[in-house]
């Protein structure tokens, strides 16, 4: 039995507020980051992230992202008792937002190390977004 996801109440008609109603916590964005940039798809892979998300928060955010159409949940082809998560088109559409956050964070964090992703984005952001989008769509096809 799965816990029902909390219904989203929109505070205003403002587009930024609307976006934050769905993605206003760091954990949802970090899960999406892991899926988009690192190809993570399982509960265990998300738990292994550097930020050390608590299991109850991870379960809640995965349920919320699924209930709101950003990801889907399905059985693993290898192990029927294991679930895997996949991005939807709605989830993939957040790629440019996460790219901009990556660029901003790299440029404003004095302790940030230049990753391969940051180098690619600096060289040709639009091309990188197109290639990443194409790759992500192949995963859901």
Gist?
This protein is mainly α and 141 residues long. Helix content is 59%, strand content 7%.
Write the SSE topology:
Blueprint: H1 15-23, H2 26-38, H3 43-47, H4 55-67, E1 71-75, E2 83-87, H5 89-92, H6 95-108, H7 116-140
Antiparallel strand pairs: 1-2
Keywords: DNA-binding, Transcription, Transcription regulation
Pfam families: HxlR
Protein name: Transcriptional regulator
Give the CATH topology: Arc Repressor Mutant, subunit A
CATH superfamily: Winged helix-like DNA-binding domain superfamily/Winged helix DNA-binding domain
Helicity, as a percent range: 55-70%
List how many beta strands DSSP finds.
Answer: 2
Shape: globular
In DSSP terms, counting alpha (H) and pi (I) runs of 4 or more, how many helices? 7
Give a short account of the largest sheet: 2 strands, antiparallel
Second rung of CATH, namely the architecture: Orthogonal Bundle
Poorly predicted tracts of residues:
none
Q: What is the first-to-last residue Cα distance?
A: 29 Å
Structure description:
This is Transcriptional regulator. This protein has about 140 residues and is mainly alpha-helical. It has one domain: Arc Repressor Mutant, subunit A. The protein is about 60% helix and about 5% strand. It is built from seven helices and two strands. The chain has a two-stranded antiparallel ribbon. Helix 6 runs antiparallel to helix 7. The radius of gyration is 16 Å and the shape is globular. The mean pLDDT is about 90.
């Amino acid at each position: 039995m799965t816990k029902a996801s909390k219904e989203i109440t929109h505070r205003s008609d403002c587009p930024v507020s609307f976006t934050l109603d769905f993605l206003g916590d760091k954990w949802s964005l970090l899960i999406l980051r892991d899926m988009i940039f690192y190809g993570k798809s399982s509960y265990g892979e998300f738990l292994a992230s550097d930020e050390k998300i608590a299991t109850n928060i991870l379960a809640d955010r995965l349920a919320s992202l699924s209930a709101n159409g950003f990801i889907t949940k399905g059985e693993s082809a290898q192990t029927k008792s294991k679930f895997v998560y996949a991005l939807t088109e709605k989830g993939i559409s957040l790629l440019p937002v996460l790219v901009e956050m990556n660029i901003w964070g790299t440029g404003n964090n004095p302790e940030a190390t230049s990753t391969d992703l940051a180098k690619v984005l600096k060289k040709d952001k639009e091309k990188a977004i197109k290639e990443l989008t194409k790759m992500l769509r192949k995963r859901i096809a």
